[in-house]
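Inverse folding, one chain.
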């Protein structure tokens, strides 16, 4: 076997065959990770190989995940792979956002350009490949929306049956619409994300359904290629900071693993610092990091308008903590108002994103103001989801009707409301004169 499942807990490190259907260590309950035993070619050869695949028309080479398959050595052959053209997401310079945050320069790695509009696609192509390889017929996840959209698409494309569990009334409409359209059996459960995850873990075990939450280590393998692609796009120049939102903390775990593997392979000379940003009302990882010791204490009723990261008991916290510490990184939290402001600024850049993604820019601004990030630092923020995922939030913001979960109205500092006008050329010409921008 080219790879094994290994317990992430340093005191355990038990290993299991790669084809065992387990999500946590049967011995100690720890999280599992995929460890490859395959030696890698030398870095110059890998860089050259990966670059040359960009000219290929094979779906495997065109995928921004499977292009880097030397780092995804868990399959014996690639016949189970279903690609929808995931990855290949742009790195976008954003001078206006940089100015707003107090930086000389800022770039966004925009995962919203994925086939279902979020970074989940990077991981899902791997998770679904593993499901097929194991002979699974049904796959399930609990989700704040994006995982379910992605799983529904990849499972349906692969001929598997997707079963989605979402918190009733608390996911963005675009995401629910995707799950339905891609043909998932969709259950809206009267509970929050953390409660539903516990439910689904029991059900998956009882009914032999394959679980595709980020506790699934094959999802993490796919998501780690976001870092590989980013470094490839930057010709392997390492930024000072990589900033990302934190919810269930799978992405933090994935980015850290990817970066460590790049370092070990000699593809980068040092690690960038990971800065994880949480929403104030759902910030258990921030609290853990600030305390500096002990275990994560769950937030029982997490609340944020950034529904993607409305998670109080993130499963991947031990991995995420390890990665933040290994990269000399940190965790910050931001308010609903800060997220709303940052999101509008990202929109004004012509880029746009969903609310959870905007936590990055809000966090960068805060870390600039406190002097942690310097103006000249080389910063990349990862925008995790597409603008159109949550149109309701946008409409409310621009019509000055956005309220926090506790009912407090947010200030729509950068509102751009639609205007109702008569069908009258003179009035419109006058109005447009008033609104002329410099
Ligand atoms: N940003 C977006 C847009 C997300 O959808 C998520 C997570 C995150 C950030 C946080 O990533 O969980 O790896 O720390 N969404 C999951 C879901 C939980 O169900 O779609 P994380």
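Residues assigned per position:
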């Amino acid at each position: 076997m080219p790879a094994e499942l290994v317990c992430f807990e340093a005191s355990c490190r038990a290993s299991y065959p790669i084809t065992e259907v387990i999500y946590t260590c049967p011995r100690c309950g720890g999280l599992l990770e995929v460890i490859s035993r395959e030696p890698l070619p030398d870095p110059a050869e890998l860089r050259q190989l990966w670059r040359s695949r960009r000219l290929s028309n094979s779906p495997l080479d065109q995928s921004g995940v499977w292009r880097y398959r030397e780092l995804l050595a868990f399959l014996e052959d690639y016949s189970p792979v279903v690609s929808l053209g995931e990855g290949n997401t742009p790195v976008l310079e954003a001078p206006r956002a940089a100015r707003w945050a107090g930086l000389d320069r800022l770039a966004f790695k925009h995962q919203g350009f994925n086939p279902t509009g979020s970074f989940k696609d990077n991981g899902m192509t791997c998770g679904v490949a593993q499901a097929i390889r194991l002979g699974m017929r049904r796959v399930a996840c609990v989700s704040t929306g994006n995982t379910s959209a992605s799983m529904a698409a990849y499972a349906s494309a692969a001929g598997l049956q997707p079963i989605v569990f979402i918190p009733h009334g608390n996911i963005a409409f675009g995401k629910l619409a995707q799950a339905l359209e891609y043909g998932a059996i969709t259950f809206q459960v009267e509970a929050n994300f953390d409660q539903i995850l516990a439910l689904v873990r029991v059900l998956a075990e009882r009914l032999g359904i394959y679980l595709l939450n980020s506790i699934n280590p094959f999802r993490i393998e796919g998501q780690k290629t976001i870092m590989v692609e980013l470094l490839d796009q930057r010709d392997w120049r390492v930024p000072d900071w990589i900033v990302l939102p934190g919810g269930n903390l799978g992405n933090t775990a994935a980015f850290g693993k990817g970066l460590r593997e790049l370092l070990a392979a000699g593809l980068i000379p040092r690690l960038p610092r990971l800065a994880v940003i949480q929403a104030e009302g759902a910030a258990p990882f921030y609290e853990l990091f600030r305390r500096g010791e002990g275990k994560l204490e769950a937030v029982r009723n997490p609340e944020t308008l950034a529904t993607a990261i409305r998670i109080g008991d993130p499963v991947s916290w031990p991995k995420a903590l390890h990665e933040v510490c290994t990269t000399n990184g940190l965790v910050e939290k931001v308010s609903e108002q800060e997220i709303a402001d940052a999101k509008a600024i990202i929109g004004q850049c012509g880029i746009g994103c969903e609310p959870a993604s905007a936590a990055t820019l809000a966090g960068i601004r805060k870390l600039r103001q406190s002097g942690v990030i310097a103006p000249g630092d080389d910063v990349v923020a990862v925008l995790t989801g597409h603008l159109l995922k949550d149109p309701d939030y946008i409409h409310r913001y621009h019509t000055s009707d956005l309220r926090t979960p506790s009912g407090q109205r947010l200030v729509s500092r950068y509102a751009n409301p639609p205007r109702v006008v008569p069908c009258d050329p003179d009035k419109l010409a006058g109005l447009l004169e008033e609104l002329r921008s410099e």
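The pocket of F0G is lined by residues 118, 120, 143-147, 214, 245-252, 308-309, 354, 356-357, 384-385 (CB under 6 Å). Residues 279 and 334 are 5 Å apart (CA to CA).
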